[in-house]
C-alpha cells in the first residue's frame, strides 16, 4: 500500500507537477483572501477566461506564453477596473462582457490558426504532463513576488479591503493597490493554468479562503490559514489525480470542495454567513491583523 502511494514520486514529471500544484494551491489561497473579502469572486473566474485569449494569441504569434498571456490578462483586469470606475455599468457586467469576449476570441483563434503551444484540453482542465521546469521556476518567482507585495503593503491592503472610501481620503493610494492586486491576481492565474486549467482556477482562489473565513474572524490568521489549506488541497489533489487518472485541476477542486463540505458540517451553516457579505466594513473592528 505504502509502496503504491510512493510510486509516482519516482517520476520526474509527477514531482514537478506536485511542486507546482502545492505552490499554486498556496498562492491561490493567499490571493483568494482578498478576492472573497472584496466580493470579487467572479473576477477570478473572469480573468482566467480572459487570460485564455492571451494564451491563444501567444501561441499563434510564437511569443513567450507568460509574457503574452500575462500582458493580456493585466490589460483585461485594468479595462474592467476602468469601466467599473466609470459607474456606467456594474462590475459584474464589465467582467462578463470583457472576459467572455476574450475567451471567445481565444477559441476562435485556436480554431482558425491551430495551437502551437500547450494543448487545448490541458489549458482548460490542467495536466501534470505539461508541466516543465520553466513552469516550476516561474511559479516560484510569482509566489515570491506575491508574498513580497502582500508583506510590503499589508496595512494598506487591509485598510483598502475593508473600507476603501475612508482609506482613499486617509492617504492610502487605493487605485495603486487595486492595480497591484490585479497584477498579482493575473500572474497567479497565469502561473496556475497549466496545472489547474482555465475552467477550474477560480475555484482554487475561492474555496480555501471561504473555508478559512469559516474558521477564523482575524484577517492575519485567515491569510496564513487559507494559504496552508490551498497548499494541502494542491498536494492531495495532485496525488489523487495520478492514482485515479483524473485531470489534476479536477481533483484539486474536488479535494477543496470536500474540505469545504466537512468544515461546513463541522462548524454549522451559520458560520458560512460570514462570507456572504460583499461589504466587509461592519467587521473592520473584529477582523484585524
- Principal-axis shape: globular
- Looking at the overall shape, the CATH architecture is Orthogonal Bundle
* Share in helix: over 70%
* Relevant CATH superfamily: ABC transporter involved in vitamin B12 uptake, BtuC
Please provide a written account of the structure.
With 289 residues, the chain is mainly alpha-helical. The protein has a single domain, classed as ABC transporter involved in vitamin B12 uptake, BtuC (Orthogonal Bundle), CATH 1.10.3470.10. The protein is built from 13 helices and no strands. Helix 2 (12-37) packs across helix 11 (201-215), helix 11 runs parallel beside helix 13 and helix 12 (219-244) crosses helix 13 (248-267). The longest helix has 26 residues, at 12-37. The protein is globular, with a radius of gyration of 19 Å. The model is unreliable at 275-289 (pLDDT under 50).
Task: List the SSEs and their pairings.
Layout: H1 2-6, H2 12-37, H3 41-61, H4 65-85, H5 91-113, H6 120-125, H7 133-152, H8 154-162, H9 164-169, H10 174-196, H11 201-215, H12 219-244, H13 248-267
Helix pairs in contact: 2-7, 2-10, 2-11, 2-12, 3-4, 3-5, 3-10, 3-11, 4-5, 4-10, 7-10, 11-12, 11-13, 12-13
Task: Note the main attributes of this structure.
289 residues; mainly alpha; ABC transporter involved in vitamin B12 uptake, BtuC; disordered C terminus
Quick synopsis:
Helix content is 76%, strand content 0%. The chain is mostly helical.
Amino acid at each position: 500500500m505504502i509502496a503504491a502511494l510512493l510510486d509516482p514520486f519516482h517520476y520526474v514529471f509527477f514531482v514537478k507537477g506536485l511542486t507546482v500544484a502545492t505552490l499554486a494551491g498556496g498562492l491561490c489561497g493567499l490571493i483568494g483572501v482578498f478576492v472573497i473579502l472584496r466580493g470579487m469572486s467572479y473576477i477570478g473566474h473572469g480573468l482566467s477566461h480572459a487570460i485564455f485569449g492571451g494564451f491563444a494569441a501567444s501561441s499563434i504569434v510564437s511569443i513567450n506564453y507568460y509574457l503574452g498571456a500575462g500582458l493580456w490578462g493585466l490589460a483585461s483586469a485594468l479595462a474592467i477596473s476602468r469601466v467599473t470606475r466609470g459607474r456606467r455599468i456594474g462590475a459584474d457586467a464589465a467582467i462578463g462582457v470583457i472576459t467572455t469576449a476574450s475567451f471567445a476570441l481565444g477559441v476562435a483563434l485556436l480554431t482558425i490558426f491551430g495551437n502551437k503551444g500547450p494543448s487545448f484540453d490541458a489549458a482548460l482542465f490542467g495536466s501534470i504532463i505539461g508541466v516543465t521546469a520553466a513552469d516550476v521556476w516561474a511559479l516560484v518567482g510569482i509566489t515570491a513576488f506575491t508574498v513580497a507585495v502582500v508583506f510590503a503593503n499589508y496595512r494598506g491592503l487591509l485598510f483598502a479591503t475593508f473600507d476603501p472610501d475612508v482609506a482613499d481620503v486617509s492617504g492610502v493610494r487605493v487605485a495603486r493597490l487595486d492595480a497591484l492586486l490585479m497584477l498579482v491576481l493575473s500572474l497567479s492565474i497565469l502561473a496556475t493554468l497549466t496545472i489547474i486549467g482555465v475552467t477550474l482556477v477560480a475555484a482554487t482562489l475561492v474555496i480555501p479562503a471561504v473555508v478559512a473565513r469559516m474558521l477564523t474572524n482575524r484577517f492575519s490568521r485567515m491569510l496564513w490559514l487559507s494559504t496552508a489549506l490551498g497548499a494541502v488541497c494542491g498536494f492531495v489533489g495532485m496525488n489523487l489525480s495520478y492514482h485515479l487518472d483524473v485531470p489534476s485541476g479536477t481533483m484539486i477542486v474536488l479535494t477543496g470542495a470536500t474540505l469545504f463540505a466537512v468544515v461546513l458540517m463541522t462548524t454549522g451553516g451559520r458560520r458560512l454567513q460570514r462570507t456572504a457579505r460583499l461589504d466587509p466594513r461592519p467587521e473592520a473592528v473584529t477582523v484585524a491583523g
